[in-house]
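Re: that chain you flagged

S.,

Sorry for the slow reply, it's been a week of failed gels. I finally had a moment to sit down with the sequence you sent. For the record, here it is as I used it:
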Amino acid sequence: MQRRQQTGTGPNFYEEWMQEEEIPVYEAEAGVEDILELPRRPWARMGGSGTFIQLEGTKQSYKGLYVAEIPGGGALEPEKHMYDELIYIWRGRGLAEVWQVGGSKRSFEWGEGSLFAVPTNAWHRLVNGGREPVLFMAATNAPAVINAYRNTDFIFNCDYNFTDRYSGEEDYFLAGEKRTNTRGKGFMTAWWTNFVPDLRTALLDDLPEKGGPGGKLTGFTMAAWGGGHASEWPVGRYHKAHTHGPGAVLMGMKSVGFVLVWPERYGPHPYQDGYGDKVAKMNWKPGSIYSPYGEGGVYGNSFHQHFNTGPEPARHLAITGGGVGGGLGHLRGEPYGDFGKSASVREGGRQIEFDDEDPEIRRMFQKELRQTGVKFDMPPVVYRTDPIPYRF
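Prediction finished late last night. Pasting the structure tokens below so you have them in one place:
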């Protein structure tokens, strides 16, 4: 179907397409506390039922999200598309079938906690292997692709095989063993795999530079998706705040807690400097998602910080690939020096060290832990008072 020419400030082509799919479109500013509880409706094209999710951060970075359900004993319709897709299984177990035009069919089993990417424009079908419904979340770059081509017949019916990305390899959907870290201390290890059987229990690599002792983080590159990572940090602790542009989608997998988000222009000490009203606080649990976004719809950077108030180590999935922007898939916003996200803002990097953070943040965390009965386990800190040579 050829799209009409878009004019004015009305819906874009992706938004029009979502409406034509005739399932709910749930919109929120920063996040959703439980995506599994969102209302779903039957999805004629896909089979099963589903709902789209639109957050400010995903709209600004042209990333799509949806939640879908496969009924017990059922299956989705076979489909292929020119946009890329990353799938995380929340409930249930089953089988995925993948094939290309003129090629042989490959299949692999998945269960709760599985993460995998669908190769670009490959036919695929998800089959529920049990009696209970399957629930999964998918992230796509459909907004960028649909808005670029404006023709859904091409997007869903093009027969081109991207054999440079997938050509029916027998081991394509086996959990990969290769992990590399070519950039040294302070940078994440990359896990090269197209399938993770259970991300909730997968081995993660130590990265104390991000969250202190016990902090773990492993990045991954899957199919054509481009990037993402899983992070874990201990009971009674929280991550250091860091900043980047909109588009990363964070999803809670284990434990409970909260997240703070504030525009970068208010600096490392928003409470101390009188900008406490600019800090957004959101609770998270398994099934929660949130996405940093540019203030007022502007493609600016935002500080954000993750806190664990639960009785077990916290684990998050960060979906950063698949959108429009930098190599990590979220928009870069303002430029930085040649430093990673683990470099201090004092060095031109993106991270606020514990001794540079606003003292109110630690006090807030301690108050939350007293309410949950969890022991505070952060390392002692002596706050620095010398000015930060940064651009706030």
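What I noticed first: The first strand starts at residue 25 and ends at 28.

Talk soon,
D.
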